[in-house]
Write a structure and sequence with these properties.
Largest sheet: 3 strands, antiparallel
Helix content: 40-55%
Strand content: 5-15%
Distance between the termini: 96 Å
Number of domains: 3
CATH class of the largest domain: Mainly Alpha
Number of helices: 14
Number of strands: 8
Amino acid sequence: MPEKRRDSKGRVLKDGESQRANGTYDYRYTDIHKKRRCIYAKTLAELRKKEDEIRRDIADGIDYAAGEITVAEWVDRYINLKRGLKQNSMRAYGSAVNRIHADPFGQKPVKSVKLSDAKGWFVFLHDKGIKQNTIGVLQSVIRPAFEMAVDDDLIRKNPFKFKLSDVIPKDAYVRDALTKEQQEQYLQFVQDCGGNYYDDIVILLGTGLRVSELYGLTRSDIDFERRCIHVRRQLCRTAEKPYFITAPKTKSGIRTIPMTDAVYLALKRVMKNRTSPKVELLVDGHSGFLFLDKSGMPKVAMHLENYMRGIQGKFEKSCKHSVPRVTPHVLRHTFCTNVQQAGLDVKSLQYLMGHSNASVTLDVYTHSNYDSVEKAFEQIASNL
């Protein structure tokens, strides 16, 4: 009978186990793909713990060796399989992937990540000052990537399958709709300041358009006879790509919006004051953009955002009481709230906002106060 192999401490080694010259241990085995593999450990106890995991994984069809791939490498594999993403989504995903690569967490083996590790990483990021929304984008990338790892039998459970709000508090800036008085004050202030953004703001406040939808309008999208605006596209810009066209945010974003008198007059002024350039810029097959800057180039969201950011401090000083921060998206919130409080039914409001789900319209974009609730209550009180 052959003599059993032992380590330097006299302990009997099992099949596949051996002690190396430097005193560490290794274990050789055949994986589920019939390939020879080898793992290492500093101690025999540590090695046998890994052996037990390997045997259990092989019995369950889990690919232990593939689980050694890092989180960053696995996320890359997941992203490379994605197709049909919009350019803005790809940009957001790209930022998330870059953050994963730059963080030490990205170098952890996929198989080693536990639920507590995933939650702990998000808490660590939040404590560093990263907002919940940004961490939410990270989760929207890494959670389906780990779900793919489960489907590919690399791991048993997805450690990122938890509700983010249970771990990270909501800290996003809350957009408040402007009151009627604040709307009047702001429009008057913008008009007094001069510049060529007054009509843009009037139209946003009277239509609820996204700013990229506003600047995607061409002359052919305006129907003065029927007094309506056809929303068909968004005009966008990034550091890498000066101008490009995308479809509205959702399929419901393709819509027709009626003009109020204020919007009608503002669009008339825009048309009248628009100086046609010698050569109309052609962007992805579209030209004749309605809103141009001083150089005769189409405006993009950045133009208006910078303008509104620049006058915010002056507006606050001009008011005797505190005012909310005004942004293009606050104007959209305000429009939605105004229309809802005026009594428009939910489905019509959802259509005007271009939302695919009515719950977004009501839960995110509308705001009620006591005055509006009191007025609505008075209208139905007699029927109670």
